[in-house]
Design brief:
CATH superfamily of the largest domain in chain B: P-loop containing nucleotide triphosphate hydrolases
CATH topology of the largest domain in chain B: Rossmann fold
Oligomer: heterodimer
Order of helices and strands of chain B: EEEHEEEHHHEHEHEEHHEEEEEEEEEE
Number of strands of chain B: 20
Largest sheet of chain A: none
Strand order of the largest sheet of chain B: 6-7-8-3-9-10
Structural class of chain B: alpha+beta
Strand content of chain A: under 5%
Number of strands of chain A: 0
Shape of chain A: globular
Radius of gyration of chain B: 24 Å
Order of helices and strands of chain A: HHHHHHHHHHH
Helix content of chain A: over 70%
Radius of gyration of chain A: 23 Å
Strand content of chain B: 25-35%
CATH superfamily of chain A: MetI-like
CATH architecture of chain A: Orthogonal Bundle
Amino acid sequence: MTRRLSFPLAAALGLGYAFLYLPILLLIVFSFNESRLVTVWTGFSTRWYIELAGNARILDAAGLSLVVAALSASIALILGTLAAYALTRFGRFRFRLLFAGLLAAPLVMPEVITGLSLLLLFVLLEQAIGWPAERGVATIVIAHATFATAYIAVVVQARLAGLDRSIEEAALDLGARPWKVFVWITLPRLAPGLAAGWLLAFTLSLDDLVVASFVSGPGATTLPMVIFSSVRLGLSPQINALATIVIVVVFTAVVLAGALLTRRDISKI
Amino acid sequence: MDTCNRGPLTGPAETMAGAPALRLERLSKSFAGVPAVSQATLEVRRGELFSLLGASGCGKTTLLRLIAGLETPDAGRVIIDGVDMTDRPPYERPVNTVFQSYALFPHMSVAGNIAFGLRQERLGKAEIRDRVRAMLELVQMADVGERRPHQLSGGQRQRVALARSLAKLPKVLLLDEPLAALDRKLREQTQIELINIQAKTGITFILVTHDQDEAMSMSTRIAVMAAARIVQIGRPEEIYEAPASRLVADFVGRVNLVDGEVLACESGMAVIRAADGSGELRVRHGTVLMPGAQVWVAVRPERLVIGDAPPTDGVNRGHGTVSEIAYFGDMTVYHLASPAGRRVRLTVANAARGAVALPRRGETMAYYWAPDSGVVLTQ
């Protein structure tokens, strides 16, 4: 069934891919460069990876980023799933359209505005009720969960809408209480969507620089913040190595999420 | 509601005793102001195979879902086995449903599907296993217990859905167009199997169908639905021979309808003047009709007899030009155009091979029918 591409088409495709991925490829290649100068190739080496492993500042930031990503993705997963469930299963409730619109808004909101508004909220909250006492991990997690909820709601909503209602009705009809239906029937059918949504949220959090910069405090520096600040001081091959690892992690997560979402659903009858 | 008590009641349903398996009292349900079920009242006896027959969109599936508890009625009561279940959720009702789409759980094996309902009853492992095996044998699927639903054919899925719903031994089994997705041969075979399983288990079946042949051949009784209402309840032969209205007569089987005015009605014989001026019709009718009343005379196509009427008195005669002939093997259908411009449908059973020289298209054909063959309809 595969069609052979004609030469102009193949060339266009190649150029397109080159435009998108050549910079990333260069970065990966130069992460194995022996030279301290980022743009001069002298030979293959894994020394920057080894040096990276000894860089406590970067490792701490990476650990923090992973914790923040996992926590915020998990919170967003619960909130987003609840929102998606309400939108697909509760019929036409009052203000449904408004709810759907507000839920989707963070998808198109500029990150600067999201970050700034959250910062304002946190500062006001601190003055009013004394919490959060200082900005750090907690505030970043909350901020990331806020915008990731929107993404998860969209992914889960699509999955829920595609589920056959009558399967849940059949379970009810066979004597299962609603919460059992949710656990034994809905959740297993929803699982690929949930996993994909979680991975998506995880990646978004891992990548985020702007929102985190606004709402983090002196004690909490995420990986993108470390990379950004060190690049401003000058390019280091260590950062190339680090970026390569990040790319691999994110790429794996995205491919996995995509595979989960598009996996031909054997269950669809 | 016409309960249709003409004729002797000898059907199997009438011999069943005890409290009704299901009683619906003035059950109503609307969706966004549009009535889907309106004032449905009926009683289904234990062990019956009861059909809800109607065209699509007449509300029969909604009625089924109201019985299952998947919809809440706006008004009326649902009484199952003598207990008012109107306000109970579906998981507390002793009824199970075979869904039109079968709605098997895709992430469970066939055995897992059948066991699902039993697990909700907290039965022991061994007992569940035995019941699952018995159910698989009942539907002749003993060797596919470990397969997943997507590995089964349509007919097999239908059997698994049936086994899953029967496993809990419900008081009433609801079947929503269970045969609609099967091809014709398999459908006829499955009809017979369903009847056998019903007889074997003794469970009351309520079957939703739009297929009148299916309803006629399988049911002890039929409720005909149209536009959210139950328009007639009766045994198949009552529905066919004594339809309560033009609507039922037209929906169940084919019928020739003639409208007219009652001239006289004496000792069960009504004389009716056809509105198209084609003459007077004599129909034997059970009830008293007032002279001057506007009525319709319904005659089934197979009750019209080809040929010149014998010189007996009181036989209705007619003739027309043959406009269409459709040969079906076991019978032939003629469409005649009467002199008054009416279309007459007439069927002839092809009992003997090439026995009679039958009329051809364009020829004039005479027919007659006895006063017992027609029905007078007042609505």
